[in-house]
Amino acid sequence: MVSRIAVTKLEGNCMAGHQDATADRWLGRAGITGREAEVLWAVAERLRNREIADRLHVSVRTVESHVAALMRKLGVTGRVALAELGVELRRSAGTGTVLPVPLTSLVGRESETSELAAPLGAHRLVTLTGPAGVGKTRLAWRIATAHSDRFPGGARLADLAPVEPGLVGDTLARALGVVPQPGWPLRDILREVAGEMCCLLVVDNCEHVVADAAQIVADLLTAGSQLRVLATSREPLGVPGEVSYQVRTLPVPTPRDSFRAATAGKYDAVRLFADRAATASPGFTLTDAVAPAVSALCHRLDGLPLAIELAASRVRTFGPEQLVEHLDQRFELLAAGARTAPPRHRTLRGAIDWSYELLDDGERALFDRLGGFPSDFNYPAVRSVCGAGDPGGRAVLRLLPRLVDKSLVSTAGHGAPRYRLLETIRAYAAERLAVSGAEATTGRRHAAHYLALAEQAAVKLRTPDQRAWLDRLAIEQPNLRAALAHSITTGDLTSAWRLVAALQRFWDSTGQRREAHEWIRRALAIGDPPASPRSSPALLRPA
Fold it and tell me: How many Cα atoms are found within 13 Å in the side-chain-facing hemisphere of 56?
């Protein structure tokens, strides 16, 4: 049969990786016009003539004419044979969804591009993970574009962002150029096609359909040895053999490098802001006059690309210094992204809403309470502050790793790690805590935990372990200040003075007497210290 021979020839060319061996080009050589090719693909999808006419905005009679021409040119008799030929052509040619061309430049990420070359070559599934707005998708596109020539089938894209759980398979099928056939389960078709394909499949935005995506990706990978998958998700897929790569935020200037354009401009976060600001407001340049404010802005935004781009779009209205001043209302300030961007990337709040809505009730409750920490914290603090109603700490032990996996909580340090929320994510958590009804309880438990730590340290600072405890208190100083502020604000006179007394030696030993006097002044504003020596700092006691 002439059509089957043609398909077989096309298969041979595609497996050899020839650039001109695509279905559309082969059809062109067979005398098929572009419009006839569109009709052929629609026939392969089992659409009726009226449906094809509506899709292509032509008359039914025009569709009938194209169908007749296709059967004549391709040597098939009957619509069923024409549909089968269309299916075979698409499957053989691997016609699928190719990578889009970005409308903006990708700033930075050179080190990530280099680091990912090795795992992508050695492993068949690499997943880029990270928080909302960190740039996982753009990095995946760069990696796929850079390495597509290693695969005869090139790079394909399956964007799962708009997809419901039950339609993950259909989206991956379209990316691979597969047309579902009646009576043949889609997963079976995908497995058969994947067994013969040699391409890089980018599966983007998996987090909301992670279970379905994991199952289908596992099916594809076990069907053959040539297919590679590069996924993006806010949490790993959990497929055996998966390599998870945490996408970091962009580097921000050190304090020393923040004051001059020449030094601040070497950092990717500042470069991104300057690039997008110049686009939003032609004529904007990074100068020594604005470099400190731009550096502070990038630092306050944690080097998060989405937040920096949204801030840069506001330079038409606010200068960098004003943007920094307005960051306490960051969710209102950064609320007007590109109209063509996905809804979750049009606003900073929308980006985090997307992650928050994927949490279950227990994860949300713990995340909200973590908003009570002003800075990084350790695991005992999480158990103490967030463990209301969880006396054994079992829920925290189960839920905290989930929040880490879902890129809402970051880890730092070796050995006993510390945890932190990016400032933007912490601000979001604090908002959620305020409306959850648990803010007062969380604040009280936070203050109590750090009061106990301060009083323990006061004893240890009189021992040979003094250096270690001075370092520990220095690390915890943001939390200690928050505990002091809470005690004073809520009128807890006893706790406020106990904290002042416990921290006296730390302040003296680290040259912070000015801060000590400021806290004493604020404590005196709500009441004199109790008579108990435990609550009366030496600074106020008579010699």
Answer: 25
- Strand residue runs (E) in 208-336: 228-233, 243-246
381 CB-contact burial (10 Å; exposed 0-12 / middle 13-18 / buried 19+): buried
* Strands, sheet with 418-420, edge to edge from the N-terminal-most edge strand: 377-378, 418-420, 410-412
Place of tokens 């399956």: 158
Query: What is the distance of C-alpha 118 from the center of its chain?
Result: 22
| Structure tokens that stand for 248 in this block | 């970091």
**Nearest in space to 159 (alpha carbons), one of 137, 131, 185:** 137
Cα(543)–Cα(539) distance, integer angstroms: 9
Q: How many CA atoms lie within 13 A of 107 on its CB side?
A: 23
Residues 6+ apart with CB under 8 A from 510: 470, 474
In this structure, are residues 537 and 500 in contact, taking their beta carbons and an 8 Å threshold? yes
The number of beta carbons lying within 10 Å of the beta carbon of residue 303 is: 23
**Residue pLDDT, tens place only, 359-417:** 999 999 999 999 999 999 999 999 999 987 777 778 899 999 999 999 999 988 766 78
CB 487 within 8 A of CB 496: yes
Q: In this structure, which amino acid lies at residue 47?
A: L
Closest CA to 172 of 203, 140, 147: 203
CA distance 316 to 347: 17
Structure tokens that stand for 138 in this block: 């753009």
* Integer CA distances (angstroms), 438 to 303, 366, 370, 388, 443, in order: 30, 11, 11, 10, 9
Query: Could you read off the pLDDT of 104-158 as tens digits, one per residue?
Result: 888 889 899 999 999 988 999 999 999 988 999 999 999 988 888 788 778 889 8
Estimate to the nearest angstrom the gap between the alpha carbon of 365 and the chain centroid. Answer: 21
Residue 8: count other Cβ atoms within 10 Å of its Cβ: 11
Burial class (CB in 10 A: 0-12, 13-18, 19+), 23: buried
Taking the complete model, does pTM exceed 0.85, yes or no? no
Classify the C-alpha dihedral 141-143-146-148 as positive or negative: negative
